[in-house]
């Protein structure tokens, strides 16, 4: 695979990741996975593809603190890497799609 092909694939992957993550109900994720607000902030950045150093800078935390949050979340959820973390988040907070590609409304909402 050429360098330009790898770059294009990375851009496509990032675009799809962003589209999927836009559909996440983050408070549902927090409740379902038992995360603190700060843990959720770190998780959100990790599954968005941010490096730990960038997360530390954006959240104004020490890198060691971000690493601790990440390790604590992995332990809580029984996951071993960022890919498994992404799958856990998707399972907890992704609204199911109807046939037309639109998210289903909550069961208790009027249609």
Describe the overall structure:
The chain has 111 residues and is mostly helical. It has a domain at 26-93: Winged helix-like DNA-binding domain superfamily/Winged helix DNA-binding domain (Arc Repressor Mutant, subunit A). The protein is 67% helix and 0% strand. The chain is built from 6 helices and no strands. The chain has helices at 3-22, 26-33, 37-47, 52-59, 63-77, 82-93. The radius of gyration is 16 Å and the shape is globular. It starts with a helix and ends in an 18-residue tail after the last helix. Mean pLDDT is 83; it is low at 100-109.
Taking all residues together, what is the mean pLDDT? 83
CATH topology of the domain at 26-93: Arc Repressor Mutant, subunit A
Name the structural class: mainly alpha
| Helical residue percent band | 55-70%
Taken as a percent bin, the fraction of beta residues is under 5%
The tally of strands reads 0
Taken in chain order, the helices and strands follow as: HHHHHH
Quaternary organisation of the protein chains: single chain
Distance between the termini: 48 Å
**Uncertain residue segments:** 100-109
The named CATH superfamily of the domain at 26-93: Winged helix-like DNA-binding domain superfamily/Winged helix DNA-binding domain
Radius of gyration: 16 Å
Shape: globular
Q: Largest sheet, described in full?
A: none
CATH architecture of the domain at 26-93: Orthogonal Bundle
Number of helices, where a helix is a run of at least 4 consecutive DSSP H or I residues: 6
């Amino acid at each position: 695979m050429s360098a330009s092909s790898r770059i294009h694939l990375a851009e496509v992957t990032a675009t799809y990741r962003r589209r999927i993550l836009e559909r996440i109900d983050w408070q549902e994720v927090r409740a379902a996975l038992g995360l603190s607000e700060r843990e959720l902030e770190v998780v959100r950045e990790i599954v968005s593809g941010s490096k730990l150093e960038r997360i530390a800078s954006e959240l104004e935390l020490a890198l060691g603190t971000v690493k601790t949050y990440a390790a604590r979340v992995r332990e809580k959820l029984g996951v071993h890497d960022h890919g498994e973390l992404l799958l856990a988040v998707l399972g907890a907070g992704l609204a199911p799609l109807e046939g037309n590609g639109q998210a289903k409304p909550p069961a208790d909402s009027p249609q």
